[in-house]
Write a structure and sequence with these properties.
Number of strands of chain A: 16
Strand content of chain A: 15-25%
Shape of chain A: globular
Number of domains of chain A: 3
CATH architecture of the largest domain in chain A: 2-Layer Sandwich
Number of helices of chain A: 13
Distance between the termini of chain A: 14 Å
Strand order of the largest sheet of chain A: 6-5-4-7-11
Structural class of chain A: alpha/beta
Oligomer: homodimer
Helix content of chain A: 25-40%
Largest interface: A-B, 91 and 92 residues
DNA sequence: ATAATTTGTTTTTTATTACGACAAATATTG
DNA sequence: CAATATTTGTCGTAATAAAAAACAAATTAT
């Protein structure tokens, strides 16, 4: 595995080993909790004494806490360790063209409240005002919380990583909008903003628990108004130079295909977005530009209902989207050869209707039969993948490994 | 930078810090040689004493050696350190459809001999026999060498990483061919086999010297009979689950475009491969299947000569290839947002003729203007990028960092 | 010649892993 | 019910390596 250390190398100091092992312990607790010190020692192949020291440190830093005692066949019972996520909460916000979704979750992404929904104001200032008020109400209504670690916001658009400014969000009609500073000022909490596809990918990586046999590289494809793709390579979110890596939505299927919101023709997005699916059903061209509540008369969910009711045109429209979904997935899979592809968006509720079309289209263009068999996991809307992603934006860094060489 | 440690975590042991720092020293010497101990200490921000211990160990292991003394304004003169590449050589082999190229290089990729060329036998057994004989002759003719570290072989096709078996090389007409074992048996040297695009990418990463401000993610696009793409993400070669990541050559430009050797239609490769360029000039469909010496009458190099001589049809053919090159690069750049793209292949000798077409096509489909300005570096055939890649296959692991967390 | 400066080594201190021993807790067994 | 076996978690000591500082060697400026 030739891996040339990147230029800003990190010299190992006296504390580096401890830091590495401490982080491994923290992540093992996260992935396997509840778990005892002795189990950690066995898993890591170190002495129990080493674990004791590390765990004592984590206990002092309140990163983990001791809970119930477990069961053994015989011998002293172990004391279980847990990530201390009891009183530390995270605000997750999902801003979309029509609605904004809000949730309070614990440090591991477990929802602490229901999901609050309200209409998205196209004016960023107004939206921040509404958001701040709703967030305060949400925190107030949850009494057990004594610390909120921050706010994670996901948006359907390009975000500059260093400043977290929203460079361009076509469906919202935003350009160069900064939510971070005003929202942080209004709530007094740190704010993280990220593209929704990227955040979803992070959340899926983050959600991995237990002894899953190393997932490898992951891709999250989010299909809604547009197509957002988040990529995890080597256990890390792929950002690229300008934090726009993963824009497979604008890789062409056909150069002279339908016009896309991005200005080019024949992008994957122009074939599989919700608009494209609806346009296919209604036999008209997909509308571009910001979508407002006034256009929300008939959604993809409605279309799927009709398809399930036996509407032949609806079935055809959904299956055609499935076919193009598969053709585009072939590009993603040929390009990245990931271990697993997650699919999110409204269309996943019709997964049973389209899986066949997706798979057969994928087989047509996948370069090898093994690639064509790449695992595809639909993520239902009920799992709120985007809100999970927003939560992960705030929570994940606490567990992140520093790259030491 | 949330990075969740992948499952097979590596616990830090007592020696881990030393190992990390030792590898940093080795890579700093590689990137900055000649360099003194005191300079290393300053660069790394550690005491000179720490460097002394590490360097002594590297000296004992013969990884570095002490050379001339340098100059200072005043004070004791430093003794320079060098990677010990004097007597340790590497065999680089580049197997292509028509010809095979062979070279002996030192551990840093510097050629020690000229490039040997001979016709590629379509029969693997015969090829191994020829290769082994030529390699022995090459080593014999270079008297200063007392250790050959191994043989790096690059092929235009898919290679299984664990066994290094060639799964499919369309232009050679090979399926499930193993070169590693017979060649290792015939020469007594370890053999590494890899796809040429991937190896080229590794070589470019590898070639980075000095204080280059961290390159970020890199892509190498090799245009010849087919299109091979190698990707470096986070300082590491992107392999994917089946070691076929980077097959951008078969991402479509148009689903109903010309037939590709892979069986699908409209792949990027079908627009920009040398065959496609020649077919465009001769106004016929590109030929598929293995290419043999008998077909080598008129090459892309010949076409470029005609274009430079003013042949309007030749200019048009080359420029059209440039345009499609740019359109496909847009997909690569939108997908990965790399810091830099290297282009290899015969067509690069006409880079001055096609750069304009490439750039304008790229601008058409790149998602942002910053992405459209992504640095593109043609790599001339005279630099032998594929042979450099073959050499890197053997040499790079010696400097590779182990991922510790 | 002497002082100043820089390189490279040696010595001492401190932090952390490695190893073994041991106390505590608990089930099994005679 | 007491003795034994087993497992968990902690403690003390040795070994190793980084951190810090002192020192020797080499070289130029004064």
């Amino acid at each position: 595995m030739p891996r040339i250390p990147p230029a800003p190398y990190q010299v190992a100091t006296r504390g580096t080993s401890r830091e590495i092992n401490s982080r491994i312990v923290l992540n093992l607790v996260r992935a396997h909790q509840p778990i005892s010190r002795a189990d950690l020692a066995r898993k890591m192949g170190v002495r129990r004494s080493a674990i004791t020291l590390i765990v004592n440190d984590l206990l002092k830093r309140r990163a983990v806490f001791e809970g119930a005692t477990g069961q053994t066949v015989r011998g002293r019972k172990p004391t279980f360790l847990y990530i201390d996520s009891r009183r530390r909460a995270v605000i997750a916000a999902d801003i979309r063209a029509s609605d904004t979704f809000l949730m309070l979750s614990d440090l591991l992404g477990k929802p602490l409240t229901g999901v609050v929904t309200f209409q998205t104001s196209p004016d960023p200032k107004q939206l921040v005002k509404t958001l701040a008020a709703r967030i305060k109400a949400l925190i107030a209504e949850c009494p057990g919380i004594d610390a909120c670690e921050g706010i994670g916001v996901v948006v359907p658009g390009m975000v500059e990583h260093s400043t977290m400014k929203i460079l361009h969000a076509p469906t919202l009609g935003w350009r160069n909008v900064s939510l971070r500073e005003p929202l942080a000022a209004a709530t007094g909490l740190p704010v993280q903003v990220e593209n929704s596809g990227r955040a979803c990918a992070l959340a899926q990586l983050w959600a991995l628990r237990g002894d899953a046999p190393l997932p490898g590289d992951l891709v999250f494809v989010s299909v809604s108004d547009g197509v957002g793709v988040g990529v995890i390579i080597h256990g890390e979110v792929l950002r690229g130079r300008h934090n726009i890596a993963g824009e497979f939505g604008h890789v062409p299927l056909s150069l002279d295909g339908p016009r896309c919101a991005c200005g080019a023709n024949g992008c994957w997005e122009a074939y599989v977005s919700n608009r494209a699916t609806l346009a296919r059903y209604f036999g008209r061209a997909a509308t571009a530009g910001p979508e407002r509540a006034s256009q929300r008369h008939f959604t993809v969910e409605d279309l799927i209902v009709r398809a399930r009711a036996g509407d032949a045109k609806a079935i055809a429209a959904v299956e055609t989207t499935g076919r193009y979904l598969g053709l585009g997935l072939a590009s993603v899979i040929n390009a990245l050869d990931p271990s697993r592809v997650y699919i999110g968006g409204e269309i996943t509720s019709a997964w049973d209707l389209i899986e066949g079309s997706v798979r057969s289209a994928l087989s047509e263009r996948a370069l090898t039969s093994a690639a064509a068999r790449t695992e595809i996991r639909p993520v239902a809307a009920s799992e709120y993948p985007r809100l999970q992603g927003a939560a992960a934006l705030v929570a994940a860094p606490a567990f992140a490994a520093s790259i030491v060489a």
